[in-house]
Design brief:
Length: 251
């Protein structure tokens, strides 16, 4: 289906067995088709927020609505079927490349090939998407490098037909240029989806419609790159720091 409005209303959360609130009174609206970059220092609560959206955990108080309906009123299976999620600790399976992208033995081959292309996967394989992965003792099997494996996992988000995509640092093994291209392709290929991504490199945040800056379990600021840079707050500082470190690297 088409994406609908996602709303967080007064959402607070502590992990089970802890009393320390990791998210505190979050109010947030994500409009359909928006590309949202979640940024902030380690421990700010970015991953936790995406965990709640996927209902890996339930909110401690407040509520999350999609299209005006609490996500708790949906079955877990049907809720999660609306999302494609790619995490940093993705796993590949001992199956063909195509099956790894489709997460199924039924593969729409042209879509899988296109998804891999969008993810920047460029390794030439004799048997293409029918090449078995992770089978060291299979004469046709191959082991992918970290970056290629990551691109194969990212391709899952391009492949799946669903209205919402969540990416949590999927690009840690990619160099800055490959990462930037991947996000450009992502935004291009997901015009009819809502996408929420967490990335350490702020060059990818620039591509989003809206940046949400998290700090200590709260939303410190939000807006476009231009708005937040002009506001001269936390994001502007983080961006200036990263930009200067890129300049140093380039020298
Ligand atoms: P970010 O993604 O911004 O780096 P996280 O959402 O991963 O932040 O973490 C927010 C806080 O929640 C941190 O203080 C972290 O230690 C804590 N935390 C994360 N996962 C768990 C967990 N499973 N149990 C308890 N605390 C956790």
């Amino acid at each position: 289906g088409e994406p609908q409005k996602i709303e967080l209303k007064n959402v607070s959360f502590s992990y089970p067995g802890t009393s320390n609130p990791v998210l505190k009174n979050i109010n947030l609206t994500i409009e359909p088709y928006q590309k949202i970059a979640l940024v902030g220092y380690n421990g700010a609560g970015k991953t936790t927020l995406t965990n709640l959206l996927l209902r890996l955990y339930d909110v401690s108080s407040g509520e999350i609505l999609i299209g005006g309906k609490s996500i708790k009123d949906e079955s877990l299976e049907s809720h999660r079927s609306r999302f494609a999620a790619v995490f940093q600790d993705f796993q590949l399976f001992a199956a063909t490349l195509g099956e790894n992208v489709a997460l199924s033995s039924e593969i729409d081959e042209p879509s899988a090939v296109k998804a891999l292309e969008n993810a920047g996967f460029s390794k030439k394989l004799q048997n293409g998407i029918n090449t078995p992965l992770l089978r060291e003792f299979d004469e046709n099997g191959i082991m992918l490098s970290g970056g290629e494996a990551q691109k194969a996992a990212i391709a899952r988000a391009f492949y799946k037909h669903c209205p919402y995509v969540i990416m949590d640092e999927p690009s840690a093994n990619l160099d800055p240029i490959a990462e930037y291209k991947m996000y450009q392709n992502l935004i291009e290929a997901t015009k009819n989806k809502t996408v929420i991504y967490i990335s350490h490199r702020l060059s990818s945040a620039v591509l989003s419609d809206k940046i949400i800056v998290m700090e200590n379990g709260t939303v410190a600021e939000s807006g476009t790159h231009t708005e937040l840079t002009a506001a001269g707050g936390e994001y502007a500082k983080m961006f200036a720091l990263q930009a200067s470190s890129y300049k140093k690297e380039a020298e």
